[in-house]
């Protein structure tokens, strides 16, 4: 696998070849990774996989015409062919008034900060096997667990580089580790499945395999004995696993592309309250060891922490260069990029700040409600904000968690849901998007 320095050289070489072939501007992305995955099931080794991949992508401009190509051949001949093909394609493409590289004066010029994305480790498959086995064993040891879909452990090393024809070149490496278990529980003819997982940048930060496995087993057993609930409007509590999904529609609605197309339910809300004043949501690309941390975006612009929601008020839009030009504004350092295609808009590490009350206090006054732990389907309309998703979790009766429940639908409109949302004080940083336990009153619950 290439080093970050070698990755930068490849990206710069491809850009130079594109310019020599007749492009007026170009940028290139190189990405490679090496991963090891170990799967255990019922105490026996089920699968070991070791894979390495590399890909390079090129975007070229011929005036306002552009084209993107990608490939895996990084030899001199392969890069030359890729560059020639891209320039030939661009000459045949229609013009796009908003196409182009990021503004040169906004490019990142300073040294990259150390975001602690790579621990430099490469654990051997035997260690991963021990982690996977310990995780599954702990899950299977929970009383009531009757079968297993397996335990797993993985390690990934990756490198990414970006180079542009107007002076930017940056690269970085990263590591990622994960453990997971999925098991089934049964009682009185009923069977339920659940899982647990954890992933980190540094192996030393990984939660113990036993804790992850035990949580998977306990979750499966807790789902047994599902009850029924009458349909109607009621408070809904989202646990931290499920609550993060509420920020996806928010991020989509404030992307520059959605605003430019006028397809956002928040189109007229910039600078206005969207949440209660107790709610703030932050995009933080500089969090040390963060799952989605990055010093520069997909166009070479510097990234910076940004308060998406500041005490309830929507600060503005996330924009790559193309959408910023459409809106006659400046890009915000939120371009996301793969090896193929043009940049789009994307966030980094996003979290909602913790509230001031405990989860127990948050549900203490609920006579009848639902505590959601899992969501099914993607029933969200980004234009209107209408929201309807399948869910499972627990019934809340008199302020306490009662019997489990499944096959229900929860519905509302995101504008109303955001305005009613109350966060608890139990924020943890475990994922790319993190929220505390959340309460939303007035949602419609429908039970089959």
Explained architecture:
The chain has helices at residues 4-20, 76-92, 125-140, 209-222, 240-243, 247-253, 256-261, 321-326, 359-363, 414-420; strands at 25-41, 44-62, 65-71, 145-164, 169-187, 190-200, 232-238, 281-283, 306-310, 313-314, 335-336, 344-345, 350-352, 368-376, 386-397, 400-413, 422-423, 433-434, 438-447. With 448 residues, the chain is of the alpha+beta class. It starts with a helix and ends with a strand. The protein is 22% helix and 37% strand. A hairpin with a 2-residue loop joins strand 15 (386-397) and strand 16 (400-413). The strands form four sheets. The protein has a six-stranded antiparallel sheet. A five-stranded mixed barrel has the order 7-14-15-16-19. The chain has a five-stranded mixed sheet with strand order 10-9-8-13-18. The longest helix has 17 residues, at 4-20. The chain has ten helices and 19 strands. The chain is globular, with a radius of gyration of 24 Å. The protein folds into two domains: 4-221, PmbA/TldD superfamily (PmbA/TldD fold, 2-Layer Sandwich); 226-448, no CATH class. The mean pLDDT is 96.
